[in-house]
Design a protein that fits this description.
Pfam families: LemA (PF04011)
Shape: rod-shaped
Distance between the termini: 144 Å
Protein name: Protein LemA
CATH class of one domain: Mainly Alpha
Main location: membrane
Radius of gyration: 39 Å
InterPro entries: LemA-like_dom_sf, MamQ_LemA
Structural class: mainly alpha
Number of strands: 0
Subcellular location: Membrane
Length: 235
């Protein structure tokens, strides 16, 4: 019996110690909980900001990629229009060559300018301002030579009797109009693209993603209207 009575005080002491620890630990745990909650809130805020920045960056890059594809599509149409003009020139030269005493120097200038223009290949990924200037110079040279040929052709009334003249006239006029329209569309797409590339903070994403400013067609004298292709005799 006496042994049992000696155990009870020991149990009481243990219970008191445990209860004391619980009482002490509860406020400590509550304080730690608040600290952890504050840290979690800051962490979630930081993660939210990072997520927003990532989503914004992805959106900007997708927008740049879309604009880049629009420029490439417009450029393909420009090249198609210029190629159409180049394809018509051999028939024109052949038709004019059938006329006696036609100025050979004028024909030679057209042939050489066409060869130079068709050799000037420019990929859509290389549309830098410098490359665009070279491309435009080559096409302008061909356009100038073709215009001079038209002027000289007007001095030969017998050309009117040539079967292909009316058809060539209509096709060349339509081609020149199309070239102007496609150039205008291309310039608009480049303007939209470049504005995204150079504007802050989009330019940060553009630079990181490899999107660079592109060149466009400069205005030329008389570019407000398509060149007239007229085989009719001057009055």
């Amino acid at each position: 019996m006496s042994g049992n009575w000696n155990i009870y005080p020991f149990k009481s002491i243990l219970m008191e110690i445990c209860l004391g620890q619980i009482v002490i630990c509860i406020p400590l745990q509550s304080k730690n909980f608040k600290t952890i909650s504050t840290m979690n809130r800051k962490l979630w805020i930081a993660l939210g900001v990072i997520a927003l920045v990532i989503f914004w960056g992805v959106g900007v890059r997708n927008g740049l990629a879309t604009s880049d594809q629009e420029v490439k599509g417009s450029w393909a149409n420009v090249q198609s229009a210029y190629q159409r003009r180049a394809d018509l020139i051999p028939n024109l030269v052949k038709t004019v060559q059938g006329v006696a005493n036609f100025e050979k120097s004028t024909l030679t200038a057209v042939i050489e300018a066409r060869a130079s223009a068709t050799q000037m290949k420019l990929d859509a990924k290389d549309l830098s301002p410098e490359n665009m200037q070279k491309y435009q110079a080559a096409q302008s040279s061909l356009g100038g030579a073709l215009s001079r040929l038209m002027v000289v052709a007007e001095n030969y009334p017998q050309l009117k009797a040539t079967e292909n003249f009316s058809e060539l006239q209509a096709q060349l006029e339509g081609t020149e109009n199309r070239i102007k329209e496609e150039r205008d569309r291309f310039n608009e797409s480049v303007k939209s693209y470049n504005s995204k590339v150079v504007t802050f903070p989009n330019n940060l994403i553009a630079s990181f993603s490899g999107f660079t400013e592109k060149g466009y067609f400069e205005a030329e004298a008389g570019s407000d209207k398509a060149p007239e292709v007229n085989f009719e005799e001057k009055k």
